[in-house]
């Protein structure tokens, strides 16, 4: 089967807003987004995962859930982004040709430093109440 060009591939975007990101959970815990189903990708189920305090870094992943439809493996190109309150991109990571089996994650262990997110650039990463 010939591969599709980027212009022929299906695309989608998920926005996940986390309230009180800077102080509402234990440092060693992962935070999981709500599950979403991508009908364009054979009804596969996914979620995003953030580890806010991972050895001095914020880790960020996309994960295919085990209990989903679709093929045993599906190849995905994706981009993970942290956005500012105005919608501009603060940090991003692109990945191409990642083969997701069921219960497989891809992302970045060192997506951003905790000092960057919760310290020196907190006003950019964490929306502050006025």
UniProtKB/TrEMBL annotation:
Gene symbol of the encoding locus: Tdpoz1_33
Annotated CDD domains: MATH (cd00121)
Domain of life: Eukaryota
Protein name: TD and POZ domain-containing protein 1
Transmembrane segments: none
SUPFAM superfamilies: TRAF domain-like (SSF49599)
Domain annotation MATH: ranges: 11-130
